[in-house]
Amino acid sequence: MKVCKFGGTSLASARQIKKAADIVMSDPQRQLIVVSAPGKRFPEDDKITDLLISLSNAIISGYDGHYEAEAVARRYRDIGTDLGLSEDFGQLVTADLQARINRYRQDNNALTEALKAAGEDLSARLVAAYFNSIHVPATYINPQTAGLLLYKENGQTSVLPQSYTRLRELRQQSGLLIFPGFFGYDESGRIVTFSRGGSDITGSILAAAVEAEVYENWTDVDSVYAVNPSLVHDPKALSELTYLEMRELAYAGFTVLHEDAIAPAFQSHIPVNIRNTNNPEARGTMIVEHHISFDSIVTGIAGSSGFTLLHFSKFLMNREVGFALKVLQILADYQIPFEHMPSGIDSISLVMRSYAFPPEKEALVCRRLREELGVEDIRVDRNIGIVMIVGEAMAQTVGVTSRAVGALSRAGINLELIIQGASEISVIFGVRDVFTNYAIKVLYKEFFF
Ligand code: ASP
User: Fold this and answer.
1) What domains, with CATH codes, occur in the chain?
2) Mean pLDDT across the stretch 125-131?
3) Which of 35, 40, 388, 428 is the least buried, fewest Cβ under 10 Å from its Cβ?
């Protein structure tokens, strides 16, 4: 069995849904289909999920939200009509949204989750209806009935392990199975969504659960590129990369596949194939366990801004047993996740996502570092970008970091920090955030020209 996930642009209109359906029908192994909510048809268009978030905000602010609900209903109605469906999908959508609003009106959080999930849920019903209308048996699968159990902790959604056993039963079903992405249920039966782009995660969980031969992730690009194509003209297309490389690149800004979609496939050794719905002939990018061929030392270069550096020092810090533990406990007390922690003999730098370390928390943390741990100098820099070179071949190659540092220094980019991960498959450079994209271009030129 193959699991195929179609993203928002692949389902944005009747024309796109027909392309996706042709892809599904061209291979009988493509049986378990995960769908996103309809996305943008053109750059200025609205994504259904964004409209649903606006609808939820409108209701929470005391408006009736009819404008937003109508915009959502119109999209599904138009798609349904263009697909030649006899049922009025606009009416179905209006009734569905109203039912969600009535049910969860008293609980803002539950309302937002339920409305966000409606995009994928209605998309799955629509796609199943289309297949049936062309006499291809297809069943809409409800994630709750199928057993996709999730939980949310510190704003992060994760899957409960028992889900895998339940979801495995999908293998017994015949015909096409159309599964909505992006959401599941918690143990008390409440809807829980993943973070944005989370249908990728649903696909990966299902592929692992049914032990799929491959997890095909159908999107709107021919492949994963070595660098963001909006920064470099005609960048190198990657025919293959490893789970670990993809994980690192997704972390630092590659948006082709959701960062959290890698783990389930990786743990179950399911290859992931990124494909283009608009160009199904292209073989796309395979994400696999090990490289079959190494065609460059650096596989990809990514970067993003929005990081904060908290730097502090204390004389003879290295002699104090448990010092780092106390620092991390302070962060944990305020639920602040940290990303990196390079250290010197008497100093530590903590790199955090700026949104996770707002000024209020900064003030509390700095005060406790001074008062409880006797820290002397503290410096906070809120304008940091990180740029990352990633490649499994780097671990066996001498001089990669030196080449990167040389190129950055020739370009006049000052390095705020350098971190080489323990796995040696990536090196991270901290730069002033305004130089993030420039640094990516400089490094691309160094390693790919
Ligand atoms: N529709 C959701 C979003 O726009 C989830 C997804 O497409 O994967 O983020």
Assistant:
1) 2-288 (3.40.1160.10), 300-448 (3.30.2130.10)
2) 98
3) 40
